[in-house]
Amino acid sequence: MTQFPVFLYQCPGTWPGDGYTFAIRPASDQAEFDAAVTDGWYPTIPGAVEAWKAPQPSPTPVEAPEASLPPLDAPPTREEIEAKCADLGITVHHKHSDSTLLKKIDDALAALRETSDGLDQA
Q: Could you write out the DSSP letters of every residue in 10-77?
């Protein structure tokens, strides 16, 4: 059983040692002792020095996630084409190719532009 109060040690610190420096922290009961040990303090100077000199694992680099967005100049996906067709009221048949549907979208948008131009002039 530990007799309290006790001192705990951590390297580096403000007190000089033989090739190292150390800090001192008191603990007046078991709870303070346990909290200090959890925070990286050691009951002996040699323990603190050994922990300080031990090689530290280098942090694992965090890789950026793969870009989930397609390039801006990528052609629309079938899902996007079908969604636009639904917006414009174009019937989609599973046998329609993407190019056929894109042509239908272009025609529908052109018709909408003509209609809106006619309304602007009225």
A: EEEEEEE-SS-EEEEEEE-SHHHHHHHHHTT-BSSHHHHHHHHHSPPPPPPPPPPPPP-SPPTTSPPP
Q: How far apart are CA 91 and CA 108, in angstroms?
A: 12
Is 64 part of a structural domain of the chain? no
**pLDDT of 1 above 70:** no
Contact 6, 23 (CB under 8 A): no
**Token reading at 46:** 């040699």
Res 22 pLDDT > 70:
yes
Say yes or no: 10 and 49 in one domain: yes
Q: Helices 78-88 and 98-121: crossing angle, nearest 10°?
A: 30
Are residue 10 and residue 44 in the same domain, yes or no? yes
Our count of domains for the chain comes to 2
Q: pTM of the prediction?
A: 0.46
Q: Which domain holds residue 101?
A: 78-121
Backbone angles phi, psi at 10, to 5 degrees: -150, 140
